[in-house]
């Protein structure tokens, strides 16, 4: 009996050790657009550490790659003069995440050489005294690179192996070669146990955003009762993944999250349709009052849009996806109605004006502006610092009544 116990204990330790030594790829950025929101991609996270010499013209952009929403990050440095023709770009990294990784993995293609740089100092124009470099040569075809962090060399001293808990910034440094280079599918290689720990953390952050969306939609009179139950089940699945990691369980969570995100996006589109239909209805009323046009079919489409939104609000939020097809059709009809109003509205010559200190878009329609500054960061509730702002934050600002957001930017990256 004792031998059997020892044997079982040995097998448990053997399996545990094997599990701990396996690695997984943790996705940092695939640069793809979201199918439900193809206009949005947080490029500012990569432009935050962009710099280039006066003798260099540098461009950073998203390029189509393979499918409708697939993108890769394109970067190009062109020589303008004989001096200072260097450039780099990069992003701030999460030290708590990167400290658990053993290597950096990504795909690249292009020409010439690129230096991958890790830096301790998070200042935008920090000195290179805390930089660790690894140089690669690019090929004209896509190639996957896997670079162990132990192989990075400290600039000026030649010491190898940075302290990953101290790394704050990832940079890609290049010199002029005129070629357009591409980066895609940036990942961290880490032990399986660490991978699931961070994957659970990512799921928990997404779950908090879902809850914020739920509060927002409930405030817009959507039926959130069934959705709340879905979120609770998702919470239980995430807790189970933390206790008993597994790729199949992770796949199930990904599918559930994708479904919930689709339902949230449909509700948000319904809100936009409602706002747009209301605005166009007011515009048509002015045009018809001036006998400058007739819009019988368009008014019928706007009425259908209003009814559909009311139906969406009454339907359980976790089953709202059945409204998706009709919503898409009415979005097109409402856009057609808007296009028909453009010419007669312009002919009326109605312009915004100021009266008694108030701005009016047109008679009887005052324009009140409530807003804030945006620095692409939101301070955390637990006072532990700031995180990058996401789309849900701006929706929350809109729910608070904000009408505009001032977005500061530098002219240099736009030139």
Outline:
This protein is α+β, with helices and mostly antiparallel strands and 415 residues long. Strand 14 and strand 15 form a beta hairpin.
What does this structure look like?
With 415 residues, the chain is of the alpha+beta class. 41% of the residues lie in helices and 25% in strands. It contains 9 helices and 19 strands. It has helices at 2-21, 44-47, 95-98, 192-219, 225-243, 247-289, 296-314, 324-348, 391-399; strands at 23-29, 51-52, 56-64, 71-79, 86-92, 103-109, 113-119, 131-137, 143-148, 153-154, 169-175, 180-191, 353-355, 358-362, 365-366, 371-373, 377-379, 386-388, 404-406. The strands form 5 sheets. Strands 1, 3, 4, 6, 9 and 12 form a 6-stranded antiparallel β-sheet that branches. Strands 2-5-11-7-8-10 form a 6-stranded antiparallel β-sheet. Strands 13-14-15 form a 3-stranded antiparallel β-sheet, with no helix packed on it. Strand 14 and strand 15 form a beta hairpin. Helix 4 packs parallel to helix 9 (391-399). The chain is globular and about 80 Å long. It starts with a helix and ends in a 9-residue tail after the last strand. Residues 5-20 and 36-40 have low confidence and may be disordered.
């Amino acid at each position: 009996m004792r031998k059997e116990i020892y044997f079982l204990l040995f097998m448990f330790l053997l399996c545990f050790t094997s599990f701990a030594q396996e690695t997984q790829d943790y996705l940092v950025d695939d640069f793809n657009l979201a199918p439900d929101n193809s206009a949005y991609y947080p490029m500012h996270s990569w432009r935050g550490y962009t710099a280039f010499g006066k003798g260099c013209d540098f461009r950073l952009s998203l390029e189509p790659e393979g499918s409708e929403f697939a993108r890769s990050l394109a970067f190009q440095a062109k020589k303008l003069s004989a001096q200072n023709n260097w450039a780099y770009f990069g992003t701030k990294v999460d030290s708590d995440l990167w400290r658990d990784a053993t290597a950096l993995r990504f795909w690249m293609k292009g020409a010439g050489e690129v230096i991958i740089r890790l830096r301790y100092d998070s200042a935008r124009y920090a000195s290179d005294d805390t930089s660790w470099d690894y140089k690669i040569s690019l090929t004209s075809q896509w190639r996957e690179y896997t670079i162990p962090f132990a192989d990075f060399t400290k600039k000026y001293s030649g010491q190898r192996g940075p302290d990953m808990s101290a790394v704050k910034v990832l940079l890609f440094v290049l010199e002029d070669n005129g070629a357009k280079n591409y980066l895609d599918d940036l990942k961290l290689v880490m032990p399986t146990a660490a991978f699931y720990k961070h994957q659970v953390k990512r799921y928990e952050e997404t779950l908090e955003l879902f809850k914020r969306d739920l509060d927002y939609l409930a405030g817009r009179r959507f039926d959130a009762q069934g959705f709340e139950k879905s979120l609770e089940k998702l919470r239980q699945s995430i807790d189970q993944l933390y206790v008993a990691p597994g790729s199949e369980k992770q796949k199930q969570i990904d599918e559930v999250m994708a479904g919930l995100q689709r339902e949230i996006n449909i509700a948000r589109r319904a809100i936009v349709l409602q706002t747009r239909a209301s605005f166009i209805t007011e515009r048509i009323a002015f045009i018809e009052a001036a006998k400058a046009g007739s819009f019988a079919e368009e008014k019928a489409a706007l009425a259908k849009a209003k009814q559909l939104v009311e139906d969406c609000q009454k339907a359980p939020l976790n089953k709202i996806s059945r409204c998706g097809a009709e919503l898409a059709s009415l979005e097109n009809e409402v856009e057609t109605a808007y296009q028909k109003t453009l010419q007669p509205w312009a002919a009326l010559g109605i312009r915004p004006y100021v009266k008694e200190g108030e701005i009016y878009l047109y008679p009887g329609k005052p324009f009140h502006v409530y807003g804030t500054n945006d620095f692409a960061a939101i301070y955390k509730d637990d006072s532990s610092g700031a995180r990058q702002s996401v789309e849900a934050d701006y929706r929350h600002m809109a729910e608070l009544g904000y009408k505009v957001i001032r977005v500061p930017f530098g002219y240099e990256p736009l030139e």
